[in-house]
Amino acid sequence: MKDLTTRQQEILTFIEHYEWRNGFWPSIRDIQEQFGFASTNAVMGHLRALEKKEMIERIPGQARTFRINRPDAPEKPEIPEDATEVVDIPVMGDIAAGYPDRVEPAGEIGRLQVDIQSAGFSSRRRSFALQVRGESMVDAEIYDGDMVIIEPRDAYDGDIVAALIDGETTLKRYIQKGSEPPYLKAENKFYPELYPVTELCVQGVAKAVVRSL
Amino acid sequence: MKDLTTRQQEILTFIEHYEWRNGFWPSIRDIQEQFGFASTNAVMGHLRALEKKEMIERIPGQARTFRINRPDAPEKPEIPEDATEVVDIPVMGDIAAGYPDRVEPAGEIGRLQVDIQSAGFSSRRRSFALQVRGESMVDAEIYDGDMVIIEPRDAYDGDIVAALIDGETTLKRYIQKGSEPPYLKAENKFYPELYPVTELCVQGVAKAVVRSL
DNA sequence: CTTGACAATGATCAATTGTTCACCTAAACA
DNA sequence: TGTTTAGGTGAACAATTGATCATTGTCAAG
Questions:
Q1: Which of A94, A140, A157, B174 is in the most buried spot, having the most CB atoms within 10 Å?
Q2: Nearest partner of B64 among A211, A24, A145, judged by Cα
Q3: What is the pLDDT of residues A121-151, one digit of tens each?
Q4: Which protein residue's Cα is closest to nucleotide C14 at C1'?
Q5: Across all strands, nucleotide nearest B59 (CA–C1')
Q6: Does B116 share its domain with B162?
Q7: Residues A53 and A95 in one domain
């Protein structure tokens, strides 16, 4: 494949990009308008050049029928090299029915995959996602219906944790000051602030929130 | 979504297959020829039905501009570990520098992978994620630093949209009552409610929020 | 100085393609 | 019996779109 001029590269990028955005290819006049050409023929020239250099293919006379000739043919434009490690996370519906300090995989209602860079968890741990029920954490901007990604690990003061209370898993703030016994705190001024914790059973620490709109 | 007739299902399947094979969408006469219709209007009728049932979308008057609207129900009962269909979403940093009504892929700062069942978007559309800056949507529970997953499509009244205002992409509520001209609305009582929209440039509709804790 | 690539204008043409109108058939329905 | 819904014919129309003509200008290489 030969070298492209700057303009040709721009056109090619635009075409790829247009398809990526819209799901179909641009017309010649779409390209013309994008670059502010006064004539469609300006586009035609570039397309002919790109065809000659075997960067694109077209069906003569037919509208919006491009084919991009990428040597590596990635489906999406420019997937960066830094292979992001992806965590595959089961979405749990109701984990309260499971073992007290374990997650019951039967409760899986879906899967969520988030890469590490974006959300910052460790792939080593077996993270899972929880659908939030209730309003106990609205002051921490976590709302009913949100999905919270939980990483099973020990909690530190200030962490938001998924914990078992009365046989039900809820989201609470974990508070531990000095050597005092830890307690849980709801982040909703209409809820009781403190939860008596006889047997503290923390499932894990919240690392991210996902909400469908 | 309503049930399709056999014929409608056949047409829909053909359109999808055609795109799969050719990389672009069929023209009406391509479909006509495939089914041996004597009139293009036979196709038109089915397309209208499919649009009414919200299975497809089209750009009126423009050639080969289909969009398939699947609720993404993979009909495989036995789903192997790795078989979950995953949407690979580029995370955009600053998209204002790109094309006026398009997203600049160079602005990619990461990737996010979310599967379809969990977040409920279509894999056909080219979704992308945006990092939210500013507080203009805090009353819709979207905060500074959140990542919002945007699906490029036309906005309806009440949607949260990513739109270009003053060369900057912001998140706003899209309001369109009846036949009145649409406008944008910030969801923050400290912000001006209405935005004067001379040239409304909607990048897409917000489908999900992802926040790292 | 000339040649050839690259880039673009402006006008025009023709094919492709989406759209619409009038009209038809058959089955389902109430 | 009339009515609706799905499916279809046939013709004509108009918008979109790709293709082509002649022409201009720049700039680097030979």
A1: B174
A2: A24
A3: 443 345 566 667 667 777 777 877 677 777 7
A4: A61
A5: C18
A6: yes
A7: no
